[in-house]
Amino acid sequence: MPVSGAAGPVTRYTDGVERTNLGSNNYLGLTTDPRVAEGARAALERYGTGASGSRLLNGTSQLHLALEAELADFYGVEAAVVTSSGFTANLALLSAVGGPGDAVLVDAHAHASLQAGAAASRAQVLRWRHNDVDSLRSRLERVDPAAGVVVVTDGVYSMQGETAPLADLAAVCAQAGARLVVDEAHGIGVLGATGRGAAEAAGVLAAVDAVTITMSKSLGSCGGAVLTTAALAEGLRTRAVPYVFAAANVPASVGASLAALRVLRAEPERPARVRSLGELLRRELARAGVPVLAGQGAVVAVPVGDDEQVLRAWRAVFAAGVYVNAAVHPAVPRGQGVLRLSVMSTHTEEQLERAVAVVAAALRDTAAPGPAAGPVPAAAERPLVVQLPPDAVPARTPLVLPAQHGPAAAGTRAGAPPGRA
């Protein structure tokens, strides 16, 4: 459903109606923050409207380097590599680190960008059952002891708000000598004492070999980054196709991202506010008799059922003046559709309480099959989804890329078995 104004707690849509917006990833409310807007404006005035080249050639500016330095400092790692989106950050990392004879193990419900990155790797791809540590152990037992192994997961799952069992995953990876990659797209700015995500909240950030993030959610802009070692970062800058061949981020997006990162670091009360509002929303929904999936942070998922049930509920909520997201297959398992709600630090308690009443009424009114609750523009009839179905990637798939996609040097984890880089 197109908007005709900024994505704030109340947003105007193209039908001219202002609705309470519980469908945005603007978790910290920074897309309209004057400091972030000024960061974009200053970058635009100094560097122009475009980068006019790839990062490897002429597209890197002082702004890119400043953002990378501050991201690396924020996460306490040696280096950061900024890419044009969070999707390309995952694609760049995973397509470059695996070679023939290696293995990439991916959670079955991992984001489409992680699935695509694994598929682009020259390594063997194995998938384990969602959030099932025993299934991961079983998959690891199938891997050649001499192989380099990378385990990949989301920190927070985008549609259902679940967190990965990162403490258990980190322990399994340490035991197996595997590298651990965590996508913190929905964790940064929300979870952890300083807003660094689910790995920080789980106390295992130091055990993660590479973190990927996006600037399009809590940081109110656009772009992505890989946070990792200096050796791996250097390898990505010469081998990762999205970095080498794609145009660099436009200056305004980099300037906005840098300004938003500084706001996040200076105001830790913003992530705390998001977590508090997320808990309020879960608590009030449960009190109203609306079931919610277990989770933390900004994303709150209400299980509804099959696609038609989800869309009927979505239309009723929309007609009553609240915007949420309808998540259906393949964004979620077939028949397990949800209404996906998300909070911003700039929401008020009153806005959330009203939204709870609307959602509860919509679910009661649409529990049985019936006509849609009023006309809905065609753009809203078929929500876009971003995750692959669990059966989209074969269980064991050796994939080959052209020669220039060789593995990046990444050093060796202390204590890893010989051959596991």
Task: Walk me through what this model shows.
The protein folds into two domains: 10-25 and 268-380, Aspartate Aminotransferase, domain 1, CATH 3.90.1150.10; 34-266, Type I PLP-dependent aspartate aminotransferase-like (Major domain) (Aspartate Aminotransferase, domain 2), CATH 3.40.640. Mean pLDDT is 88; it is low at 370-421. The protein is built from 13 helices and 14 strands. By secondary structure, the protein is of the alpha/beta class. The chain starts with 9 loop residues before the first strand and ends in a 23-residue tail after the last strand. The strands form three sheets. Strands 3-9-8-7-6-4-5-14 form an eight-stranded mixed β-sheet, with helices on both faces. A three-stranded mixed β-sheet has the order 1-2-11. Strands 10-13-12 form a three-stranded antiparallel β-sheet. The protein has helices at 34-47, 62-75, 86-97, 112-120, 133-141, 166-176, 198-202, 230-239, 241-245, 251-266, 269-287, 307-319, 349-365, and strands at 10-12, 18-21, 79-83, 103-107, 124-128, 149-154, 179-183, 210-214, 224-228, 299-305, 322-323, 325-327, 337-342, 397-398.
Draw up the topology in text.
Elements lengths: L9 E3 L5 E4 L12 H14 L14 H14 L3 E5 L2 H12 L5 E5 L4 H9 L3 E5 L4 H9 L7 E6 L11 H11 L2 E5 L14 H5 L7 E5 L9 E5 L1 H10 L1 H5 L5 H16 L2 H19 L11 E7 L1 H13 L2 E2 L1 E3 L9 E6 L6 H17 L31 E2 L23
Parallel strand pairs: 2-11, 4-5, 4-6, 6-7, 7-8
Antiparallel strand pairs: 1-2, 3-9, 5-14, 8-9, 10-13, 12-13
Helix pairs in contact: 1-10, 2-10, 3-4, 3-8, 5-6, 11-13, 12-13
